[in-house]
Amino acid sequence: MSRICFLGDVHLGCDHATESQRLQLFRALLSVLPGYCSHVVILGDLFDFWFDYRTVIPKAFWQSIAALGALRDRGVTVDYLIGNHDFGHWRFFREELGIEPHPGDLERQWYGLRFYIAHGDDKIPGDWGYLILRSVLRNRTAQRLYRMLHPDLGIGLARWASRMSRYHGTEAPQRLIDSLERFARKKLAEGYDVVVLGHSHAPALKSFDKGWYVNPGGWLNGDPLFACFDGKGLSLLRVREFLRAMGENFSSSANTA
To answer: Domain residue spans in the chain?
Structure first.
């Protein structure tokens, strides 16, 4: 078995200064991962918005979709967790790419270790308002009704709603960071060896008595990371430095680990 890589919160399509840069980095990363890893787990919010109709998908993402398809064609297994921005998946990824978008948390076993993997948007205790909104937005009946809108209108509204998201920044509230760490500790106490979360945009790699908690952070700050498990331990890798080491010519950020 080869390495398992984790990345998330790329927010492709976000109206942000780093958009073109993020797309280039994402495509370059996916192009070099075959041969380096056997499995890629996308932790949600790959897209800043997503909604697919029976015959229509957002055209802005065709380059990233092609990169994902090429990754699968080269033998890499892809697990894709739906986040709080890209929840509007239906058939396209499953039928055209062979990638099943997972609406809930995942449990996996690699190298004899139990992994618990989640986006993390529903892990804040007492956040009932968001949890109710989340259940409505993901309701299949509500999504079928939404598909009655013309795609130009429906996808446009999805983009607008994403921009209006109450948390959509490069720095996470401390309450969110703390809530995700407490959740990770809880799952480790239940017997999992590794807990992998996203959503906060705040990188974390912590070893506890019961195992590891890792969060690769987000891509909006211009210096993205991804996580890697090689069977012996976990690491957080800077995308630019990794690409340079793999022979890709991307300039290094001034930030260092």
So the answer is: 3-245
Q: Distance from CA of residue 174 to its chain's centroid?
A: 20
Dist CA 256 CA 3 (whole Å): 23
- 199 token code pair: 């959503």
Q: Looking at the predicted structure, is the pLDDT value of residue 252 above 50?
A: no
CATH class of 3-245: alpha beta
Greatest CA separation found in the chain? Answer: 53
pLDDT tens-digit series, residues 134-147: 665 666 776 777 67
Considering the entire predicted model, what is its pTM? Answer: 0.86
What is the C-alpha separation between 160 and 48, in angstroms, rounded? 10
At 19-48, the pLDDT tens digits run 889 999 999 999 999 989 999 999 999 998
Between the alpha carbon of residue 56 and those of residues 9, 101, 152, the distances in Å are: 23, 17, 10
The secondary structure of 120-186 as a DSSP string is: -TT-STT-HHHHHHHHHHT-HHHHHHHTTS-HHHHHHHHHHHHHT-S--SSS--HHHHHHHHHHHHH
> Which tokens hold the place of 142?
């509500």
Closest CA to 227 of 28, 54, 29: 29
- Extract the tokens encoding 84: 């709080």
C-beta separation of 52 from 94 below 8 A: no
Q: Which two tokens stand for residue 99?
A: 């990638």
CA atoms in the 13 A half-sphere facing the CB of 171: 1
